[in-house]
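Hello everyone,

My group is preparing for a crystallization screen and wants a predicted model to guide construct design. The compound we'll soak is S-adenosylmethionine. Before spending weeks at the bench, it would help to have a computed complex in hand. I've included the protein sequence and the ligand's SMILES below. Output in structure-token form would be ideal because that's what our pipeline reads.
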Amino acid sequence: MPPQRELMLNAEQATHCARVHEHLTALIAASRGWLSFERFMDAALYAPGLGYYSAGARKLGAGGDFTTAPEVSALFGACVAGQCAEVLHALEGGSILEIGAGSGRLAVDILSRLETLGCLPDRYCILEISADLRERQRRLVAERLPGLYGRVKWLEEPPEEAFDGVILANEVLDALPVRRFRWHREGVVELGVTIEDGRFAWEPRPASEALADACARLRQAGGGWDDGYVSEYCPRLEVWTQSVTRSLGAGAVLWFDYGLPRSQYYLPERHEGTLMCHFRHRAHGDPFLNPGLQDITAWVDYTLLAEASREAGFILGGFTTQSYFLAGLKLDEQMRALAGDDAHLSARLANQARQLMLPGEMGESFKAMVWLRGLDLPLSGFALQDLRHTL
Ligand SMILES: C[S@@+](CC[C@H](N)C(=O)[O-])C[C@H]1O[C@@H](n2cnc3c(N)ncnc32)[C@H](O)[C@@H]1O
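Reply:
Good plan to model first. Here are the tokens for the complex, ready for your pipeline.
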């Protein structure tokens, strides 16, 4: 059953939804009745004051719409901190730039652990597109780490100045707007959004040459598709990842997200793509429901990320699943360090560890990837499993 019927909106949510609907309808009208899904997703997530990430919905955690590894457990941040420490140690210092910091939990967990390790970065910068989330992050850091607040700096644009250290992002690439397409023997169509009887509806149009060329590459990698195969493609991933990593001098870029190498992403059996929406912890596939109130995501094509990063001059340092990344950073030791003698906390952390590690939970579909520049260093998070050959 669609979430709108099952989960009633309160008056404030219904009003907000109606405003976002109106905004999207105006965008569709302004582009003569057909809007690419990429632009629709962009506006539904990021239109100032209206989009899911730009407005005040709670979004992450128990009272929100979805949960992420840092929201599940401080263990994730403790392990990522361990990985950052190895890089900062090798560089004899440096800064950290986190992109898309959500509630700020990961920043707090990383900084706490690095403080304990005596390995604090010179600066911890957060590049965050959402003004609402920037405020939440500020409040959380001020409340939980008042002594380190001065070290944290919020950015609205990628840094201009070069720095050495670590760039990291958890579950940000999946929030980049994508194009949707349908493959037919006689040609590729792009699925855009139109209005039918006052509702959003899919409408196909012949794909541009650039999209048709991209689809030909994706189809070849996936091993052939049947007529009517639907999937998505993220044309802005290349330029965006290059722009946010440009300022890194020497150091590492760590990406965490659910995704696959291209040959597995575009398998014939995945014929409806990977588009997924989240509303109050229910996942479903309809991006037209509750605009402005639900998250819209697509899996990451890690081969595309690899192409973009290589072109920007980075060297691939490792690619592995989240569970092997965490195991390589000794999740069990982090658990003992966090729990100390507290048996209850230890039991809670053990449950959270299962959620982060088990293949049916976040352990396998989520991947970790690291890119290096000016640094030749084996990293513990990537020592136990090497999936680079799959890209
Ligand atoms: C799914 S949430 C993940 C939050 C957090 N990293 C976590 O793991 O809990 C996506 C985050 O990326 C941010 N974001 C999305 N697109 C962005 C962009 N282009 N630049 C910076 N932040 C962005 C969102 O506002 C949000 O904070």
